[in-house]
Amino acid sequence: MIGAGIAGLGCARHLAQKGKRVVLLEQNEPGSAASGVNAGTLAYQNKREPLLAFYREALEEWARLRHTLGEIGHGQPGGLHVASATERAELERVSLARAAIGEPVEWLEGRKLRTRAPWLGPEVDAATYCGRDGYANPQLACLALAAECRRAGVTVVSRARVRGAALRNRRHALDTSAGDFEAEAAVIAAGPWSAGVASLFGRELGVGSSLIVLSVTEPAPSFIDAVVTHVSGRLTLKRLANDSVLIGGGWPGKGRFEPYEPGIDAASLQHNLRYAAAIVPALAEMRLVRAWAGFESVTRDGLPILAALGGEPMLVACVPTAAGLTAGPLMGRLAGELVLGKALPEYARPFARGS
User: Could you tell me the residue range of the domain that residue 89 belongs to?
Assistant: First the structure.
């Protein structure tokens, strides 16, 4: 296993529980990169209709993790998918499309909306509610999964950057900064570094990186009682267990991927905060505790990659993107199934390609 983010940890755990000897190589520390710096949103109703079956199962996987691992900062209060007057038509389209496939959401406007969420500002013209939307704490989840991996017998090797890959006696021979390793099968789960890792195996993987900024406020009275996503895709909000509010939405940062130097773009952060305060005006009165930036993986079509790349010995790519934290645990388990020779379920087959 190469990469100890949420997907790599999930895959390693699954294979170890199936009786396989697993070595998990991580260039830094488990959960320290893309999986650990994101907003932790586990939303359902902001996903594309063809992918709903996958994300429905992905949210069930998170519920199973909560019961298995204990405290991972997981909550499922339901969510509001909001729109301004100019974006209302798109929200209506999404709502009708969900109803057409048997996945209706509750439509809220006018007095019904204000009664349900009086903390939303006048900028919000309409919203839909879905009880499946939730969140998790990425750092807690990765730490708990790493501990579970070790209990299951996984050898987790930190500071092990893969520098080369070759074939030796029908096995992968890996040269890393922590020594040499051999394996009958390898899984690339290195997030935005996956393309570089794949190139060491002589494979092309269409994965890039995107730098995003997030922020968190001081604790405040418990006025936000739902996860908030915006139909434009430019905002996520959720109240954490300590009553702080975490603000995301994919606004860009500034910095370099190689060497790894993520940074905050002040103008972008200000836009993100203004956008959030327009949706929830009470946020304008709250102090910002911290803001940070991090890289996440992106693909050409916005879809995750989950595929056996062909040839022998087996090589599998597992790269969550487009809500990568939500997808990660399920994708990790399914990647483990590919290693074991199982076929992907129908709901995951759109991801079975190498670019």
Answer: 79-130+210-297
Place of tokens 């899984």: 187
Shared-domain flag, residues 55 and 185? yes
Do residues 18 and 150 both lie within one domain? yes
E strands in the chain: 23-25, 41-42, 79-83, 106-109, 126-130, 134-135, 155-157, 162-168, 171-176, 179-183, 185-188, 207-217, 227-230, 236-239, 245-248, 254-256, 261-263, 288-299, 305-308, 314-319
Helix (H, G, I), strand (E, B) or coil at 178: coil
Span 266-313, pLDDT tens digits: 999 999 999 999 999 999 999 999 999 999 999 988 899 999 998 889
Phi, psi of 135 (to 5 degrees): -160, 165
Bridge pairing between strands 171-176 and 179-183? antiparallel
More confident residue, 223 or 190: 190
Question: Does residue 1 fall inside a structural domain?
Answer: no
CA distance 236 to 156: 33
Look up residue 66 and give its two tokens: 């909560």
Token code pair at residue 246 = 């975490």
- pLDDT per position as a tens digit, 94-129: 999 999 989 889 999 999 999 999 999 999 999 999
pTM assigned to the model: 0.94
